[in-house]
Amino acid sequence: MPASGWKLGLPAAIVCSVGAWLTAGLLQADAPPQKRKIPSTSLPAIDLGLWSGPMSPPRTTRVRPGDDQRPYVAGRVLVKFRDGTSANARAAALSAAQARGSSAMDWADFDIVSLDPTADPEAVARALSQRPDVLYAQADYIAHPTFTPNDPLFAQQWNLAAQALDMPRAWDINNGASASIIVAVLDTGLAYNNEIVTFQTRGVLADNRVYPSLGQIDVPFAAAPDLGAGRVVSPRDFIWNDNDPLDFDGHGTHVTGTIGQATNNGVGVAGMAFNVRIMPLKVIATDWDFAFGNNNFGSAATVAAGIRYAVDNGARVLNLSLGFDGATSLPAVEEAVQYAVSRGAFVSIAAGNNFEEGNPVEALAEIANRVDGAVSVAAVGRTLQRAYYSSRRTSVEISAPGGDLRADPSGGITQQTYDFGFSVPDPFSAPVSQYRAPRFDVFRFVPFQGTSMAAPHVAGLAAMLMQQGIDNPRAIEVAMKRFATDRGTPGRDDDFGIGLINPRATLRGLGLSR
Amino acid sequence: MHTNTLARVSRGSIRALALVSALLLPSTSFAQSPATATTPATSPNPTLSTSTLSAAAATTSSAFAIADDTNDADADQARGQARRLPPTRPVPPPPERAVTFMGFALFGTTSFAAQDSFEAILDSSSGAIYGGGGQINLPLNLFARVDVSRFGKDGTRVFVDNGEVFDLGIPTRVTITPIEVTGGYRYRFGRRTASGPRSPRTPARGSRRGGLNIAIYGGGGIGSVQFKETSDFALPGEDVDESFTSYHVLGGVDVPIWKWLGAGAEFQYRWVPDALDGSLSGVSELFDETDLNSSSFRVRIFVLF
Fold first, then answer.
1. Which ipTM score applies to this complex?
2. pTM higher than 0.80 for the full model?
């Protein structure tokens, strides 16, 4: 399965399509690039559940404290004596336990017995429990709140589990940010509206295959059921130049889910910063955009415009799970990124998926490396090793789970997006006989892989850090790097950058001495 | 004339007058008391001056010995003429106890040298301390002391970048508990006590035990500083509870308040090297503040036992 990462520029299918459109116009005249919505019509989304591809059984584990991380308070046990136990009997019991003394605390009906700090409280408690005059004795185990979402597929999200990002403990500190934080997702759009849109399609010549016009079709759209209502703010479509950035692909919807999927709602999966508001900005054109008659490309211009739009409309975090094939310099985009950071917005950028394609320069990731407050994100798989596709370059700054389905068929990043049996995100790769109108109202929970999936983890963490109090994008980058878990070669390396993000440690910050 | 009048008063009157004089006369009179006490035996002047008598009565037991040794017959003789007092051996001061003990409570304020680190976490690099201890006053004006004090303050965890502090709102509590042993020199001024001039017959308690004088002292010592830092959301092993060796110097003054009760004020500087360094790395690492040094102003309320 190819890595999921959108490349602006000239994807093969589009090249062919454009060529066909320009040279022939043989099949049908191009339709006006407008969406025609059918008023007062909306259809409910169809949620088909988890993708039926190979998935391993849940493998969530909990970190077991080691010897140096004792789960109890050293040097004491809690003891409750039976009623009527004499002072002498109590003293004898405590003496047998080699206790240093005992005390009681308000509102408690037990004694706190002091021990030698090196003593094993569990063993002492067991010994005390054997005495007839002791009702119970226990080590003073350390309590901590734990938020584990009830989303039924959370158990399959290894990327959020203890062995990777340990998000339940991070959510104990920061419960998924808040609605005051707006995260802009510059991508293929978002499945956020229930509507039916009428398109005038055109024929496409791709790879020497002629895909005929489908005529005027009504395409159903629905909001992703697991995203939750009322999450979207200031949507904008820079391909169709309107305010309805519908996702014709599913990539943007998947990425958005990783950032802010509704969590603990008893549905599907969890997201990183599940309380943020989402600003979907469509800056990437897909095959269906072209088939629906739109001639615009997602380009440096649309991305630069989208970045400025996001910041000017209140976004504090921007996610760019995209890249530019062949570009070595993107000054317009770089200025936009600098503008975003200067306005207090953090920018998360995918590091690139082309390691096996010659590991070329990733111009956008290079920008992140030059701008404090923007980071380029490499991908790791389930084993926390570099994903096979993840670019190895000096521009890599940090790592996050992006999935590696080659190393582990269950090692993708699972989020809700379209059921590709209906939406057909790559329509011109299928035989012409299977070419048909798509529908964007049928959803699945699908495992993706790519640095596109890694970047939204960082964006979600940035949103949580913003809400926690680090409101300076440069400081967010510094904090993420400071608390990152080193991977690979000690120190920074081209595989992982500084290391794997550590949300809990980053959110917890620094004390006086630790 | 004045001398004659004095010679005719009774023993009790002499004693009362001596006490009054002691209160009224300048302290320089006290300083000459030992010499005055021997004056009758050695001085060529056969008369007693007012100052010598009163000073003697007020300041030394030998002066009282003079009055006490003057029986009624002698008084009758004195009515007729001035006479040379019989030679007397100077009576030494009652031996002060070689060792005295003091217990004290202390409170005050302390200020940490790791100013940026403490201000980042606790909003202030200083705070109140309280504690207590015991002191033993030794011969040769030496003393030894053991005390424990405590500093505790609530703050929040932070992140620091380029000198800018970001409050993360996670409660944290810092507790610093030094246990220290101090040795030093303690110099007591004068002989006044809280209850007034000291009398060998009815000595003030403190006076009898030789402790409650105005005193200045200085010393130094060693200790152990327990440093605890606990935070919300800490996993086992993440909170800090470590002890470090400390060194300190101090100096201060004690003043009597009443009988066996006194108060003192002192300044202390404590070195706790590398307490914020090593395996630990909090904001102190960012600010390059590795020591837990502090300066304290402390008030002591003490009781002489």
1. 0.78
2. no
